[in-house]
Amino acid sequence: NQQLVRERSDVRDVTFFQGFPYSDVSFAGASVTAVAETAEAAQRAARKAAEYAWSRRQDFLIPLNSAEQAMDLALQAEYPVVINESSDNPGGGAPGDGTYLLREMLRRNLPGSAYGYIYDPQVVRQAVAAGVGACIDCLLGARQDAFHGTPVELKGAYVKTISDGRY
To answer: What per-residue confidence (pLDDT) applies to 8?
Structure first.
């Protein structure tokens, strides 16, 4: 964008915003904002920056690991690792009930590991009804759609605590 600003004295600034690729709305994609002396100059600069970004779109693609590959990499590390299910981000409109990583963690039986959370009000109601210290059988997660996995069958899941979330 600095090159665009230097090329034209009537353009003050051009900024590329990468957007949020996992959003479920079309208007959260990539965009360009240009500030110039005239609307025409701003449109020209914005179009030039957008065309440049589009021409380089392959540079923005990164290979993604499967749950299995992510676990393999994490197990090689000599330090604590956080694996994030970025496509199941409630802040971006996803349900937060993805099961791919949890299923792989359970398959591998990883002592000393923890899973952050799964949004599943049905299982919460079941745990509350059973009470602290009880063990429940349930199907956990993947209730909103099929994109984030299938429910994980748990047998004898221990209800460690029940909280309103305040501590």
So the answer is: 61
